[in-house]
Write a structure and sequence with these properties.
about 0% helix, about 90 residues, mainly beta, two-stranded antiparallel sheet, four-stranded mixed beta sheet
Length: about 90
């Protein structure tokens, strides 16, 4: 995110109902999982952005309460959410 200069990025953690991985013409359905991306801060309501360890975040899941006490890690180049961190 620090390399994005066109807008102010906000990290987004959201529930993905059916992740699809693409490898050329091959599609693989991975099923539901947490996904990580980013949005422009200018396109979000100000009160929806929270700071986590100094990083602006927005949570896009209806059941985001599942993230209370969770951790977000980067493992082998993939984001991993551990909902039962505590």
């Amino acid at each position: 995110m620090s390399q994005i200069e066109q807008f102010r990025p906000v990290a987004c953690l959201t529930w993905v109902y059916d992740e699809m991985r693409v490898d050329g013409a091959h599609f693989e359905h991975s099923g539901p999982c947490w996904g990580v991306g980013f949005h422009s801060a200018d396109q979000l309501p100000f009160d929806s952005v929270v700071q986590v360890a100094g990083i602006p975040f927005v949570f896009g899941a209806q059941d985001a309460a599942r993230l209370d006490g969770a951790t977000l890690d980067l493992v082998n180049g993939q984001f991993v959410v551990n909902e039962r961190a505590i």
